[in-house]
Amino acid sequence: MLRTTLLAAAAVTALLAPTTVPTTAGAAPVAPAVPTAPAAQAGIPALTDAHGRALTLRGWNLADKSHSGDQALDGITERHFRDMRAKGFNFARLVVFWDDLEPRPGQYSQSYLRKIDRILGWAHQYDVQVVLDAHQDVFGPAFGHRGIPAWATRTDGLPFTPHPDDWFSEYFEPAVQRAFTHLYQDADLRRAQTRMWRVLAERFRDHPAVLGYDPINEPMGELREGEDLATGARRIESEQLTPMYNRIADAIRAVDRDGWIFVEPTPIVGEGVPTGLGRIDDPKIVYAPHFYNGAMEAGGDYDPAARWIENYEEAVTGYPRQYQVPVVVGEWGPLDNARPNMNRFYREAMASLGRYSAGWAGWEWCYGGGYCAVDAKGAFRTNKELTAEPYAEAVAGTVRTAAHDSATGGYRLEYDAARRGPGVTELSLPPGAWQVAARGRAIVLRPAPGRALVLAAPGARVTVTVTARRP
To answer: Is beta strand 331-332 parallel, antiparallel or unpaired with respect to 290-291?
Structure first.
């Protein structure tokens, strides 16, 4: 977040009387918008910072799967953070690999840790918060992918057949499924995984860019004979993932009391299947499902009649309501974003995410085709520009309503200012000419392009409007 202490102190005297201060004279009225209830209004707690402010995270995954060993993470540069922040994004889910961190049992790569530290330095420079994600695809290098080291892969000699045209189906190969079972059940592999996380958390616990930790990407498991996928996923989540997350949370808490821990269900949740995860006994847990549709992952178009977004939202909100944890969607975004219905998909997906989540990370911030958010020159690819909206990064108080109008680009926030704490609400604005105004005992400051601060008197009812500047 912005370093705002001096600005807040300089402006505090202006809060002694009711005021309405737009950033420019003659601000246009906000066009009517359909309110989207913030997550807290939907019965899901807010994600908060050290000051108790309600956070909204908007950003992208950063992944370099092409390089390993001495070249690991070389594909992630300062440009990634500069460009993301310039377009209004404040969040990155940074993909790291256990096989690079611990290439041999008990030997942790100091070079790899230094590279992570360098990337986090860029994140801090551009005011981007980071979650460290221990990524795996099809378990790891034993099966031609990245993630869990080959030395930690046990298959009992079961077969594995690659599926180069459908890599996700490799998760259902007998050897891969058995490898997950050993990871969850073998005492020495459990210890190795928790030690790895203790090393990461101890190294980066005090880094100002680190918001938290994602223990494992898209965990899977071994199906039993005759078990359908949905039933198997719920059993794996209940019996294997829940105790794993509790073990890792304990390891992290031994060295870091403050970082949020982002727990994922299996990716089967993307098909609208409620999770079987149980309670994680930690006060700072975030539910971090992914938001993918099988047909769209195969390159198909969005089908509004299938009601996939509605079904997903209904299924995914049960767990955070039951266990009272915030939601951040860790990955989302279709493979072919230029198909005819994708403009509608992005608009409906953004509205849905705004109803229940504290934020999201799209897949992925890279420069090219496929899933990439931007092209080689850094311009948004077709329909990806719809992910860039005005939003409140941090609200110092209780949000009553938050609304974005996709037709006009306008944004409206109403909140009751906190009675204690810094009292500074922070807004992020995508590229463009924006007018920001506040009603109530509050003033607006514009310290930098793309940023706005609202300073409110304790307990004040504040309404903030963001409108596109008229030519």
So the answer is: parallel
Whole-structure pTM value = 0.93
Residues 6+ apart with CB under 8 A from 143: 153, 160, 162, 170, 173, 175, 176, 179
The HSE-up count of residue 125 (CA atoms within 13 Å, CB side) is 14
**Whether the Cβ atoms of residue 354 and residue 404 lie closer than 8 Å to each other:** yes
- Tally of CB atoms within 10 A around 339: 17
The whole-angstrom separation of Cα 42 and Cα 213 is 25
Burial class of 243 by CB neighbour count within 10 A (0 to 12, 13 to 18, 19+): middle
CA distances from residue 10 to 6, 325, 461 in whole angstroms, order as listed: 6, 36, 21
Q: Which amino acid is at 53?
A: R
For residue 425, give the nearest of 387, 466, 467, 464 by alpha carbon: 464
Which SS3 state, helix, strand or coil, does residue 174 take? helix
Identify which of 388, 464, 402 has the alpha carbon closest to the alpha carbon of residue 59.
Answer: 388
Which residues share a beta bridge with 157? none
233 backbone dihedrals φ, ψ, rounded to 5°: -60, -45
What span, in angstroms and rounded, lies between the C-alpha atoms of 202 and 209?
14
Q: What does each of the 471 residues of the chain score in pLDDT, given as a tens digit?
A: 444 433 443 444 344 344 333 333 333 333 333 334 456 557 999 999 999 999 999 999 999 999 999 999 999 999 999 999 999 999 999 999 999 999 999 999 999 999 999 999 999 999 999 999 999 999 999 999 999 999 999 999 999 999 999 999 999 999 999 999 999 999 999 999 999 999 999 999 999 999 999 999 999 999 999 999 999 999 999 999 999 999 999 999 999 999 999 999 999 998 889 999 999 999 999 999 999 999 999 999 999 999 999 999 999 999 999 999 999 999 999 999 999 999 999 999 999 999 999 999 999 999 999 999 999 999 999 999 999 999 999 999 999 999 998 888 999 999 999 998 879 999 999 999 999 999 999 999 999 999 999 999 999 999 999 999 876
What counts of helices (H) and strands (E) characterise the chain?
12, 19
Helix (H, G, I), strand (E, B) or coil at 222: coil
DSSP string, 345-411: HHHHHHHHHHHH-SEEEES---BSSTT-SB-TTSPBPTTGGGG---EEEEESEEEEEEEE-TTT--E
The tokens for 317 are 């909100």
Q: How far apart are CA 175 and CA 170, in angstroms?
A: 9
Beta bridge partners of 415: 399, 462
